[in-house]
């Protein structure tokens, strides 16, 4: 039976599914605003009129976007002026939030079990590799089910 955390993760993965194809989109060197504006054959004056700004202010906006120093609200405003929808989001590097949590859970479980086994070896009570791997798998499943905060340390 799924718990509330697992259900939330599944729902988030469904929402992020739409972004997967966009993960391969590369931002143009001069930024999206400049690229779209020039592709539409729109002058800075024309875009400035739509945003009630000067052409110099539009140039600053384009420069800020290209350098990564523009606000999300400003990007949203420019999108509206260009009659476009501004899209913002994150996509997991490992395919899904669920997979990210699985990888982090296994890594944490391996760290815990390995450290514990090292201490047990010092007391001549170490366990074999097969048992270690089984213990790591069990602990990783438990960590994943609980989505422990320690995953992110």
Topology:
Blueprint: H1 4-16, H2 31-39, H3 44-51, H4 55-67, H5 72-81, H6 97-122, H7 129-146
Brief rundown of the structure:
The chain is mainly α and 153 residues long.
Description:
The protein is an all-alpha fold. It contains seven helices and no strands. The protein has helices at 4-16, 31-39, 44-51, 55-67, 72-81, 97-122, 129-146. α2 (31-39) packs across α4 (55-67), α3 (44-51) crosses α4 (55-67) and α6 crosses α7 (129-146). The longest helix is centred in the last third of the chain and has 26 residues, at 97-122.
Largest sheet: none
Compute the gyration radius: what is it?
A: 25 Å
The unreliable regions are none
- Number of separate helices: 7
Keywords, separated by commas or semicolons:
153 residues; mainly alpha
């Amino acid at each position: 039976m799924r718990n509330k955390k697992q259900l939330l993760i599944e729902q988030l993965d469904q929402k992020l599914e739409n972004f997967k194809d966009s993960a391969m989109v590369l931002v143009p060197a001069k930024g999206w605003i400049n690229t779209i504006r020039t592709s539409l054959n729109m002058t800075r004056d024309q875009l400035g009129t739509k945003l009630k700004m000067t052409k110099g202010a539009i140039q600053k906006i384009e420069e800020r976007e290209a350098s990564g120093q523009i606000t999300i609200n400003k990007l949203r405003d420019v999108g509206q002026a260009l009659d476009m929808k501004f899209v913002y989001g994150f996509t997991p590097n490992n395919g899904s939030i669920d997979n990210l949590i699985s990888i982090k859970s296994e890594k944490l479980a391996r760290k815990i079990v390995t450290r514990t086994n090292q201490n047990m070896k010092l007391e001549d009570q170490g366990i074999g590799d097969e048992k270690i791997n089984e213990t790591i798998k069990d602990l990783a499943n438990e960590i994943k089910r609980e989505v422990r905060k320690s995953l992110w340390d």
